[in-house]
């Protein structure tokens, strides 16, 4: 056991755990939980630290999953059980080696599989739920040290609570995923005026498997992204190394860092800088293996808040945000990311029970985000907005209970499996009111 100060990627949260443990299997997790409970300490598993909130923070025992057994068992019909500590960037190629792929992913692949599902991480696609929607069973070590398995047939209430479980229901040691045969995606990225995107929105979502767009505040420009499966056996046409370097490394990261530094020193230049950013990312088209197309590199550090809303509310929400940006004088060098998902079933999923649009707002880490994020939160409060559990917001349990029809049921499961709040922390005390 060693302890050191832990910091999340965004540098918004730090923790000084009393001890850090790297368990190798469920039995070891079980022993650690029992010892911690005896010593009166709390326990928290941590993934890659890519949540912006304090969801993974602990002053007790921190469980790091890097040495947890990397099992990968293929059961047939696309079902695969994987160890909870797999980082997504390693899982993609490992599944591909078995001829399989996950059906949807977010826009980075640095997270662990358990961390990603733990906060309801999602990608985009009108017919797809969040990543936790691809989960068919979980193996967890509960607060009493027992190893539990849950699925739609086996303790379904625990399954629906723990799929997006914020680390509150147990330590996940294995995840069974419904995968599909490995596939390639044809990616088409096209700049488009915001009005045109909003006018054709229903068609864009229906006609594309994975549609999203980035809107550049202070302008009415967007960059749209459409990813669609190509027939099995189609030739790949990946970006050339030079183009990938210029677009993804130089423009999206290095030049973008420079623009953000300029924006920090000269905020009044931001509207012009955003017009430059929007133009710099020009149209492009390529075809590559799915897990490579979904993920991008993000080296410019930022803060983020993201809200899920009923899909129909999106145009009005964007108009309100645009109105606030214009009247507030706030300068925002980062694009707003807009994604879509189907209604899904995990009780604490932000897309629970409703077709969803997500609006994600970002601010460069050297610039203050508070006024912007507060304004967006207050707009989204009027549209039944649900905050991403891993991104910044200030809602509490009472407010969140009104947004999730099965919130009370999930809290009853928590009372059953963790009555003494072994997995508690300050964030859970706020968002679960206890
Ligand atoms: C640059 C960047 C890009 C992002 N892109 C997206 C995106 O495209 N879509 C999206 O929805 N989100 C996105 N996020 C948010 C991110 O996916 C989530 O915050 C995710 O939870 C981070 O995973 P992690 O492995 O870092 O987990 P952590 O942040 O370390 O932990 C998250 C939660 O999972 C719990 N947990 C982890 N492992 C276990 C376990 N084995 N058992 C029980 N609980 C566990 C932790 O206790 C904690 O509650 C992004 C974040 C960043 C910084």
Say what the CATH topology of the largest domain is: Vanillyl-alcohol Oxidase, Chain A, domain 3
- Whole-angstrom Rg: 21 Å
Low-pLDDT segments: none
How would you write the strand order of the largest sheet? 16-13-15-14-18-19-17-20
| Number of β-strand runs | 20
Textual characterization of the structure:
With 434 residues, the chain is an alpha+beta fold. The chain folds into two domains: 72-181, Uridine Diphospho-n-acetylenolpyruvylglucosamine Reductase, domain 3; 184-387, Vanillyl-alcohol Oxidase, Chain A, domain 3. It is 32% helix and 24% strand. The protein has 14 helices and 20 strands. The chain has helices at residues 26-39, 88-97, 113-118, 156-162, 194-199, 201-207, 241-265, 270-280, 290-294, 314-328, 370-381, 397-401, 407-417, 426-431; strands at 6-7, 14-15, 19-21, 43-46, 61-64, 72-76, 79-83, 100-101, 135-141, 147-150, 171-178, 180-181, 184-193, 210-215, 221-229, 284-289, 302-310, 336-341, 356-364, 386-387. An eight-stranded antiparallel beta sheet has the order 16-13-15-14-18-19-17-20, sandwiched between helices. Strands 6-7-11-9-10 form a five-stranded antiparallel beta sheet. It has a three-stranded parallel beta sheet with strand order 3-5-4, with helices on one face. Strand 14 and strand 15 (221-229) form a beta hairpin. It starts with 5 loop residues before the first strand and ends with a helix. The mean pLDDT is 94. The site of flavin-adenine dinucleotide (FAD) has 33 residues, from strand 4, helix 3 and strand 11.
């Amino acid at each position: 056991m060693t302890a050191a100060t832990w910091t999340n990627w965004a540098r918004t949260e730090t923790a000084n755990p009393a001890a850090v443990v790297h368990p190798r299997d469920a039995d070891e997790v079980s022993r650690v939980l029992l010892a911690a409970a005896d010593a009166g300490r709390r326990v928290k598993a941590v993934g890659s630290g890519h949540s912006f909130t304090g969801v993974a923070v602990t002053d007790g025992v921190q469980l790091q999953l890097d040495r947890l057994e990397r099992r990968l068992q293929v059961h047939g019909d696309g079902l695969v059980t994987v160890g909870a500590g797999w980082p997504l960037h390693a899982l993609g190629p490992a599944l591909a080696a078995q001829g399989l792929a996950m059906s949807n992913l977010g826009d980075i692949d640095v997270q662990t599989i358990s961390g990603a599902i733990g906060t309801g991480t999602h990608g985009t696609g009108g017919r797809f739920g969040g990543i936790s929607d691809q989960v068919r069973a979980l193996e967890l070590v509960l607060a009493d040290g027992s190893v539990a398995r849950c699925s739609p047939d086996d303790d379904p209430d625990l399954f629906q609570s723990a799929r997006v479980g914020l680390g509150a229901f147990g330590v996940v040691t294995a995840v069974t995923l419904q995968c599909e045969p490995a596939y390639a995606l044809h990616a088409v990225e096209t700049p488009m005026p915001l009005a045109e995107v909003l006018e054709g929105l229903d068609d864009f979502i229906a006609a594309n498997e994975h549609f999203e767009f980035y809107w550049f505040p202070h302008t009415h420009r967007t960059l749209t992204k459409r990813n669609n499966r190509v027939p099995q056996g189609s030739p790949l046409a990946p970006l050339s190394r030079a183009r990938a370097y210029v677009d993804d490394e130089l423009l999206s990261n290095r030049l973008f860092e420079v623009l953000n530094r300029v924006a920090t020193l000269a905020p009044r230049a931001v509207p012009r800088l955003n017009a430059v950013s929007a133009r710099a990312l020009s149209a492009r088209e390529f075809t590559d293996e799915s897990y490579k197309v979904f993920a991008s590199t993000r080296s410019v550090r930022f803060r983020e808040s993201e809200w899920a809303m009923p899909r129909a509310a999106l145009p009005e929400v964007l108009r309100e945000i645009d109105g606030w940006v214009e009247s507030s004088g706030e300068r925002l060098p980062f694009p707003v990311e807009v994604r879509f998902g189907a209604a899904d079933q995990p009780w604490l999923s932000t897309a629970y029970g409703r077709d969803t649009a997500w609006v994600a707002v970002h601010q460069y880490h050297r610039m203050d985000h508070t006024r912007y994020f507060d304004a967006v939160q207050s707009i989204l409060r009027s549209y039944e907005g649900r905050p991403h559990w891993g991104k910044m917001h200030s809602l509490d349990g009472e407010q969140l209970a009104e947004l999730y029809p099965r919130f009370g049921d999930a809290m009853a499961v928590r009372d059953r499996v963790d009555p003494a709040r072994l997995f508690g922390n300050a964030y859970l005390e706020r968002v679960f009111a206890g």
